[in-house]
Amino acid sequence: MILLVGKILIEGKAMNYDLPVDYTLLSISEKKAVREQYIKEQNGKCWFCRCSLDKEPPQNVLSKPINLKLFPKGFLNHPIHLQHNHDTGLTEGAVHAYCNAVLWEHYGR
Ligand SMILES: [Zn+2]
Asked: I want to staple 99 with a disulfide (CB 3.0 to 4.6 A). Which of 43, 48, 71, 84 is the partner?
């Protein structure tokens, strides 16, 4: 019985990651869980523009052009992305999809 409870807790959403983590080692479900933890820790704000993740990014970000041809098809379909450092592989935070594109294309992140 105790074992069963322990198992449920480990597999349940109560699990917290010791952030940052190595993005390149995460499975799809782990990326989702890490992204959700960042959203909570950032109080629902974007790591890059600091605006609410359930709203559009601000004009000063949207005014930066992005070349969608450089990104995988459907890149902007998921509104919230998990940003990671492409040099270290470590996660940095949850960002708007558009902010993620701007970070990569304009800042090389
Ligand atoms: Zn943003």
From this structure: 48
